[in-house]
Amino acid sequence: MQRATAEKNKVSVGGGKKNNKTRKGFVSGGIQREENSVEYSNVKPLCIKNDWDVRLDELEKRLQELSDTN
Fold first, then answer.
1. Has residue 46 got a pLDDT over 80?
2. 36 and 21 in contact (C-beta within 8 Å)?
3. Where is this region: Disordered (predicted)?
4. Three-state DSSP string of the chain
5. Who wins on pLDDT, 59 or 46?
6. What integer pLDDT is reported at residue 47 of this predicted model?
7. Percentage of the chain exceeding pLDDT 70
8. Is the pLDDT of residue 19 over 70?
């Protein structure tokens, strides 16, 4: 029960848990900026299949038809 109370107080006082991207505020020349620190060394290359352009065009047409009927 003490842990739950401590966690509740931590969330209300400290603003809760942060997401995976940590933001660090710093002052440079009197202006406060936020910096996202993200690790990009383990990022996989994006592979887009050739038939996606046709599928996306078809999806766009269907969505347009649906929005026109409403």
1. yes
2. yes
3. 1-30
4. CHHHHHHHHHHHHHCCCCCCCEEEEEEECCEEEEEEECCCCCCCCCCCCCCHHHHHHHHHHHHHHHHHHC
5. 59
6. 86
7. 49
8. no
Domains identified in the chain, total number: 1
To which residue do tokens 């766009």 refer? Answer: 60
Range of the domain at 16: 2-37+45-69
Q: Tell whether pTM > 0.90.
A: no
**Other residues' Cβ atoms within 10 Å of the Cβ of residue 21:** 9
CA distances from 46 to 17, 43, 49 (A): 30, 9, 10
Residues 8, 17 contacting (CB under 8 angstroms): no
User: Tokens in use for 54?
Assistant: 């046709």
Q: What is the CA radius of gyration of the chain?
A: 23
